[in-house]
Structure formats: C-alpha cells, structure tokens
Design brief:
six-stranded parallel β-sheet; 23 helices; binds iron/sulfur cluster; Rossmann fold; elongated; 13 strands
Length: 495
Amino acid sequence: MPEIKTSDFSAASTKAIADPKLRRALDRVASGFHVARLQRIEEATPQVWDGWKTQAREIKAHTIEHLDYYLDLLYKNVTAAGGQLHFANDAKQANDIVSHIVRTRNIKIATKSKSMVSEELGLNPVLESLGVEVWETDLGEYIIQLAEETPSHLVAPALHKSKEDVAELFTEKLGIPYDEDIYHMAATARTVLRDKFMQADLGISGANFVVAETGTLVIITNEGNGRLCTSAPRVHIGITGMEKVIPSMQDLSIFLRLLPQSATGQRITSYVSMTTGPRRSDDEDGPEEFHLILVDNGRSRMLADPALREALYCIRCGACLNICPVYARIGGHAYGWVYPGPIGAVVSPMLVGLPQAKELPQASSLCGACREVCPVNIDIPRMLLDLRKKTAESPDRAQRSAPKSERMMARLYAKLMSSPRLLHWAVRSGRTLQRLEHLVPFSPVTKGGKWIKKAPLPLLSRWTRSRDLPVLPNKTFHELWDQGIADRPSDARDV
Ligand code: SF4
C-alpha cells in the first residue's frame, strides 16, 4: 500500500489553506465541473434527474445486499468468456497475483489506464521492482507520474496543477522547450505514449463497472487510452474493488448517464469501452489473456457495518469533492491517502483503519451539500457522524480522536447546557472577565468590543484561531425575555 499520511491531516490541511496557488487551481476546475453538472440537471429536468438517482441507488443497494450472489455470477460469466477472475483479500494478495502474471508471461512494459484501486494497492512500485517499465496513460495520471506525486481528485488527478506547472514539468522531465500551450502539451504526451501502447506486453485498467450477467469490464474515458490499454497488449489485467459489480447491461445504462454528468457535466464520455474475456478467434484485435482482480482490502469491514455499508454504493464521480467547502480549501493531498473529499473521509478510515485516520471524519462542516449532489443519494454526513461517534466513544484509546482535555470540556459543556442556573452563572462570570480584559490573566481578548479575538485557555484559544466568536452580550436571551423585549430585535440590539 502507498504511504498512509492520514494522521497528518491537521498539519497538512493548515499548510494547504495557506497555498494561494492551490486555491486558484481548485476554484477553477472544481467549480467548473459543478456548474456543468447543474446544466445537465436542468437539461434532464430535476424530476427526471431525481428519478435516475433513485433508480441508481436501488440498483446499488440491491447488488450490495446480494453481493455474494452477483460475485458468483460474475465469476461464472468471466470464466465462460475465457477470462480468469481472481479475488484478493488485501493489497499484498492483489500485488502477488499481478506479480505472478508478470513473471510467468515475461512482461517488460506495462501501460495503465486510470485506476484508483491500483493507487490503493501501491502497484506501480511493485511492478518497477520486478523490472517492468510502467506508463500511466491517462493525461492527468501521466503528469502525476512524471511529478512523482499522487492524484488529488477522483476524476481529475492533476487538478492541483496549473498549465504553467505542467509546462515546467515537461521541460524538466522530457527535455523539451518550455511551452504552456495546452494543445501542444497534450500532443507531446500523445507522441510519447503512442509508442508505449505499441510496445507494451501488459495493459492494466481499472473498472468503472463490472457486469455480472455477461462478465464484462466497463471503463469510461475521454482520451481513448483505456481502449488502447485493454486491447493492444497481449495481456490485460483489470483491477477493481469488489463493490463495482452491477447485475446487468440494462442497469449499466443508467450509470453511463449519471456518472459522467455528475463528474464533469458531460452528457456521455468520449469512449465507453467494454471488455468481455480475451480476444476470440474471429476478433481483429484484443488481448490473448484477460484477468480480472476483484479487491476486498477492507471493503468487507464496510459491508459488515450497517451504518457505513452505503459507502460501497459510491461510483467515484467526484461530485461531492467539487461541492465540498473543506475540499475546496485544502485540495486532495491533505487527506493523506488515495481517496480525498467527503467520501474519502468515510472510506479511508474503513480501509486504512480508524486509529490511523481518526481525524478525517472531522474534516467536514456537515453542511449536507455532498449528500445533495451524490448521484446515488449516499448520506455522507450521517456516516461522518457515525464515525465521529465511534471515535468519541470507542473503548479503544487508539481509536479515540479527542484528547482527554477535549473530552473533559465536552462533558463540562454538556453539564452547563443542561443546567440553566449553571449556565447563567457561567455567562455572568464570562461577562465580568470580558470587561476586565487586559487586567485579569486568562480573560478573553476582544476585537473592537464585538468579537473575541483570542479566547482564554489553550483549548479555547485554538478554537478562535480561525473562527469568529461574538462577545457575550450585555444581556442574555433569558434576561431579555424576562424584560419582555425578546421579540423586539431592534431593542435587543440596543441594550
Ligand atoms: S459519494 Fe456520491 S458524489 Fe461522492 S464520489 Fe461517490 S458517488 Fe460521487
């Protein structure tokens, strides 16, 4: 597996927020996707769109409820079409299966189309350790590979890079003159990669869907690289999560509309490639061998948890990232692992383990925008709350996210809010301290008498470091109420 940096979330997000270049890149691309998505909804009409979402969710829910049946059906149909289906419990098993194929087929060059699961497995270093030349062929992934970075978005891996960044990268790594014309840069990548497609012995792809009734692997792309990876080399390996199975071709039709329209606002992607088994005797092209590796790698844990199971419905469209106010400020790398954004904050703790990623469920304002845009109606905020509850109440110290001091403060707050007398006493004391600003140690420091600039005590001052906290008013709501003027807001402002 690639290095897991999820426990660095606080430090990494603080650093990302301070990066104006990153903010500009995020604003430009993610908001463009979001606007295009809204246009598609208008075009389809919101009623029809909602109907598609409901239908897609029902298909996913049904498949996940009967996953053993559909995996069995998929196995039979992949095998009947002449392919081989492998199940991998974890990253090591998946990498071992690929390594075995590579060694026994004398593979020297591999081309890859975009696959988040292969990122999850850390497959590229494994292949390189076997002496295989690995070429990412999705343009965004190619840029990331040259930059020796990891993707920062589910559908736009190089979203954090500007065209100037890419031009500099191409000059440095490919030795070509600096040229920031996007058309020229894409042409350069095409020239480099075209040769590799022709030389590769192995093509590795992910899968957007796998259809159980036919044993078909489906990938949707805009660049045609996926089709070349799956049809030009003599061996094709598809690698995907076991949740990507859907029952039938008829079910596929709804996802072929919903996925691109939610992801980038395109009506349909330029290429929809379907692979069923290896090349047949009357086929003009195609691989001699077809392998499909279905990866668990922690997904069974999600399946076993009724509160988090619906995370397996995700079709990785990225719409929840494009709308998320947290992602919009920190980008994808701050999340510290393969899956960023709101759905990453749910999936990563389940896949890498809650103790390692216990901060991620806090990476949300719980505004609910992710739930609203999700094409399969996944209730991400509910799952984030469930994970927060797990980290707050877990008897296992390693899983608990809040330090002892924070839990003490929460208990104190609960006591305060459940006792009017205690609350009034605390408010009166706070007001007194507020008036004695600069005179008494630990009193709050106010800004123009309206905002608390720095709250007292280290824990509270951390809260006000990046948040506005209004000063305590001269009269509380209860006091105003007792005076009978609570329903007159203009009076209330004057007191
Ligand atoms: S959770 Fe929903 S919106 Fe987010 S990537 Fe998955 S399918 Fe798309």
